[in-house]
Design a protein that fits this description.
It is a single chain. The chain has 837 residues and is of the alpha+beta class. Strands 7-6-11-4-3-15-17-16 form an eight-stranded mixed β-sheet. Helix 2 runs antiparallel to helix 3 and helix 3 packs antiparallel against helix 4. The radius of gyration is 33 Å and the shape is globular.
Amino acid sequence: MPLFKERLNDSFYRAGIALVALSLLVFCLPFMVSMEEKADFGLFIFNYIITGIYFLVRVFNKSQIEKENKIHHLFLLLILFLISAYSLNREITVFENSVDWFSGLLVLLCCNYILFAFFNSLPQWARHTISFLNGVGFVTFLYLSIYLLPLSPIGLAGSFLIGVSLHLFVPILFTVNSVILQNRVSGSQRKYWISFSAGLLAVLAFISVYLIQWSNTANNINSALHGPGKNEAGLPAWAVVSQKIPKNNMSEKMLKAGLVYSVPASETFNFFWGIPGRNFGEEKKHDPLVMMAAFCAGIPSIETGDRVKVLESMFDMRHQSQERLWSGDHLHTSFVNTEIKVWPKCNMAYTEKTLTVTNNELPRGWNRQEEAIYTFYLPEGAVVSSLSLWVNGKEEKGILTTKALADSAYKAIVGVERRDPSVVHWQEGNRVSVRVFPVIVGESRMFKIGITAPLERVDGKLRYENIYFKGPAFDDARENILIDFVQPGTDCKVPASFVSMPDNQTYRKQGNYSSEWSMQLNDPGLSGCSFSFGGNTYSLLPYHKKLTPAGLSDVYLDANEAWTKEEYYKVLEYSKGKNVFVYFNEKIKVDDSNKEMLWDKLKGLQFGLFPLFEIANPAQSLIITKTSTFSPNLDDLRESGFMQKTKQFLARGHKVKLFNIGNELTPYLKSLKELRVFQYDSGDLTMLQASLLKDQFADDLEDDNNVTIHRSEMIIHKSSEEARSASGPDHLMRLFSYNHIMQKLGKDWLVDRPIEDSLVQEARKAYVVSPVSSLVVLETQKDYDRFNIKDSDDSLKNASLKSKGAVPEPHEWALIILAAITLAIVIRRNKIQFGAR
């Protein structure tokens, strides 16, 4: 303990500790408050002045500092220099922002150097610990020294400029003095050198293991790209890579190398470190492990565009890779207001999410505008049915038009004129994208999106899943949620954070935004739910599976990593007596001699991309699948030989039977199902066994007047008969129209046939976003006129929380008006008679 007191009585050392704390506080100011860009240089000057003050204090008081303590004062000076160097890096970028683990390591090492001043007063285990960390620090600063080595001549040449360029030599000073420090405190006791060496070797061992893993992953990618295996299906190389490499952190970092993570520049001498040219929706980062691995083992020879497609397919990064007209780097989602109307007897809900997106950045140069892009993930069968944007403090509702018109108007206004538009587009895989422009520096924008969705039936219950989104950061967002039951709901189970109102038909929540929550309630059954509009009535019917003879002779297993070995062998057992095939680079018939070998190969596929065109007899064939939640989209494969063959197959009018033994479908299968390529059924292995044993399969019950939503086990039926009592909301028509459009588009959309104008008109009438239609908000009526975007009078318009139910037909309006006139006459006569009396 005497040494602690001695250090605390050392006024110069206390001053150094105080200056380190002050310098660190100043350095961290941009993380705590918004600051103008020009303030970065001011902060550096402040950090540099603090460093200079301590340097001068040491110089002028050199004689008053004991010789054995000088190295501890030196490390305080080096720590101040390190803070100043990272502050300067904001102005003159030598490397990108460090990843979190490396930033934390540097802070830990600096604290460790300060602890060395109290080495002799610490218990032995603590001495070994800080000696171990000193070994770690030696390797860390040796890496930074090598990293900056190519810039050393520049540093020497510019040293006369008040020593600013001398920051480049801070790491080498740490490296050399780490050894001197260890020698000073260890003295003749070799055991502390052993701890130092253990830290050094531990880091080197960790790096070696990392390099080996990196090299193995790179070899796997290169093997998938250029390996000798066949690729008869015509899949693009990037799709094969997506299927065959493991989905882990190493693969993700390798694919992001050069996009997000800095790597050595290939066009210059290898010792020069490069920085990425594209940030892929993330800030650019400097990860020493990635840098060293890329330098020592290289990165796969996969083109940037293909690498992005692999990231989209394997790691669900389609949101990050969307085309941007303007940056959105400084935006964040500050508030979410969610209002939900639920119709249990109609098995559906309408959700409105009003989002506030804020640009907290202070003015930096000429660019004061940014573009907000959101991706919303919808349940199966759901559709976007409203869009609003607040312009000059007033809510402006969207107008439904063709996707092409909405896109061209948005790009023209945002890209050239830079005024207020918003647009929502349909995307594959039950997604939509919303764009809002501009979000001006220091201001916020509000937009609202409405989603009509069926509820999911699970074990005799109804379940509402929150509709989540990706977009500008929402870590600190607040949210208000209101759930209102239009029809009585019973035994409703909501998260504990929700508060029930006295009527038990309204639930509220206020707090931090949460994307993952759901609600469950009793299923009252579909009863008397219908809606009339435009001479048609839309009614709900329960979906009852109708099994018909299948005549199956061939079974195709879409086996992949999602399957278990037990499922694989069970399905083979159930399929006895039939021809069983799998696909691994080519179509292979499964038998007792090769089933084990094939399983070993198939279990390594991250997802299936079963080539439909390999099915010889579609009418007598069944595909059995179980999948993960990721894969390429159809559009990703559009120009590939694989998709060209698929189009040729579908153009012949084939519809394929698909049985899903899992709970999910990949985006590839989900899109094909939504476009009605499959005759679909799902269930567990017992249900599959029964289907194969009886040679029966679920019949396709859809036609022009019926659409099926399997997830909700319901059919929406359209008829020209008028409903006796219209008790359902207009969302019935919206759901029918969207799913009917998808049904009619089907193979035509895939094979690039002209889209029927009747489908565009159906989308206009129901006001739903689809592959052929989008909602757009423009600033003025002149903008709508210029792009020939016109609203339809004969339509449902934007959905609303106030929507109650059926809209009267023209002849009904006439009867209503006639009744009103008659009632008015009767009342007037009664008044006259009463007055006469």
